[in-house]
Amino acid sequence: MNLSLHPVTAADHPAVLALNLEAEALMSPLDAAGLARLDGHSVYHRIVRDGDEVVAFLLALREGADYDSPNYRWFCERYPAFLYVDRIAVAASHRARKLGSLLYDDLFAFARERGFGAIACEFYIEPFNQASSRFHARYGFAEVGTQWVAGGTKRVSLQIAEVAAAAG
After folding, report:
1. pTM for this structure?
2. How far apart are the first and last CA of the chain?
3. What is the β-pairing status of strands 142-149 and 118-126?
4. pLDDT value at position 25?
5. Sheet holding 118-126: strands in order across?
6. Of 26, 33, 43, 111, which is the most exposed, with the fewest CB atoms less than 10 Å away?
7. Distance, CA of 36 to CA of 16 (rounded, Å)
8. How far apart, in whole angstroms, are the C-alpha atoms of residue 159 and residue 32?
């Protein structure tokens, strides 16, 4: 593997959309217009390349963005400052190769450098995403609430991790 981490450019958007589609069962759908809007609001949006191929991405927003996600809004109503992981995806061909950790380690370093005290995220608990639950626990995330989404068909665990406490 020849892995490298890069900021997303518009030329990467088709690959990001393909990764999002591949992982759509675990996160919300995204089209080109939605990605362009999210990219414009993001403070952290990076990809992992294996050679020339985009094999993972992570997109995060800070508080105060013009974004109507019910999970993002939940955090905005309760926390004055945070970095919110809106979505992360790793290509099926590259899972179990620590790319999620590569992105999260970089995200936590980014948050520390810019003075963010907390990172927020969510993952499904109905249906239960055990892999995501274990992964986030390793970074010090703890549940601060739950809510039903997708028309009451899925429930998320809303999580916060203190940036200084994150071990990775």
Report:
1. 0.92
2. 22
3. unpaired
4. 77
5. 3-7, 44-50, 53-62, 83-90, 118-126, 154-162, 142-149
6. 33
7. 11
8. 28
Contact 32, 40 (CB under 8 A): no
Alpha carbons 51 and 3: distance in angstroms, whole number: 7
Cα gap 165→139, rounded to integer Å: 8
Report DSSP state, residue 2.
-
Token digits of residue 3: 């892995």
- Beta-strand ranges (E) seen in the chain are 3-7, 44-50, 53-62, 83-90, 118-126, 142-149, 154-162
Which residues lie closer than 8 Å to 98 by C-beta, 6 or more apart?
none
Task: List the CATH code of the domain at 3-162.
Answer: 3.40.630.30
- Taken as a whole, the chain contains a residue count of 168
Pull the structure tokens for residue 109.
Answer: 């370093």
